Amino acid sequence: MVKFKSISVRIMVAISLVAAASCVVLGGFGLWRQQATVDTALERESRADYANLTAALDADTRTTLAVANSLAVIPELKALVSAGDRNGTIALTQKVLDKIKPLGLELITIQTPPSISFMRAHAPKVFGDDVGPRRKMVVEAMADKKAIGGVEVGREILNVFGSSPMIDGDKVIGNVDIGEPFGDAFVKNMKARFGVDVAIHQMNGDKMKTLATTLTDSATSVDDVKRALSGEVFTR
Question: Considering the domain boundaries, does residue 9 fall inside one?
Fold first, then answer.
């Protein structure tokens, strides 16, 4: 064992040891601060991306509602629905569908109370089914006599819907439902506009289904989705 007899040498060694320990502590603190700064920046960017996505979704919803509201008040269409004239209703709404489909609005459906599909302009041979179990907005729009929009499950995929009740006097005679697929077109548009990769997942019980993505690997877990739905922002 080396012995330091000189007091000055001992002091210098002690100072060196303290300095080394301080460097280790400061280095660790610096790395921690750096990581904290990165995490804060990532969270801030994630929140900004989320705000952009929700704003775009709100804009799409307003578009579907505007079209639904416009159709719901057309006297000729109301008369056809009141008379139960499915073929006449299809003929009229298909003309509208041809105009709005290039804009991404691909679905026009009319339901009658309480939530029975009267006709689908995009699928004329499919009617008579009760959409109430999966389309709460349709039920709510007719019950409250008030237009409502948002994302719900369609016959096959998620869609952005705008539902507007058709009212004749004080009586609700039906509901106009305009839909825009919530999938590939939406995520590609977000990628092009904001430069952010997006994936849309649908949770069904303990299973996850990826509906659309711009990522090469967008696998996620039910636990991750539950954390996100609870309001937590996290990275992985």
Answer: no
- What is the rounded average pLDDT of the residues 101-116? 96
Within-domain flag for 133: yes
Across 95-104, average pLDDT? 95
Quote the pTM value: 0.74
Task: Give the count of domains, the chain.
Answer: 2
Asked whether residue 126 falls in the same domain as residue 224, the answer is no
Residue 101's domain spans which residues?
58-181
- Report the 3 state secondary structure along the chain: CCCCCCHHHHHHHHHHHHHHHHHHHHHHHHHHHHHHHHHHHHHHHHHHHHHHHHHHHHHHHHHHHHHHHHHHCCHHHHHHHHCCCHHHHHHHHHHHHHHHHHHCCCEEEEEECCCEEEEECCCCCCCCCECCCCCHHHHHHHHHCCCEEEEEECCCCEEEEEEEEEEECCEEEEEEEEEEECCHHHHHHHHHHHCCCCEEEEEECCEEEEEEECCCCCCCCHHHHHHHHCCCCCCC
My answer on whether 175 and 64 are in the same domain is yes
Residues 204 and 175 in one domain: no
Q: Are residues 69 and 174 in the same domain?
A: yes
Q: What is the pLDDT of residues 124-162, one digit of tens each?
A: 999 999 999 999 999 999 999 999 999 998 888 889 999
In a domain, 167, yes or no: yes
Q: Do 68 and 177 belong together in one domain?
A: yes
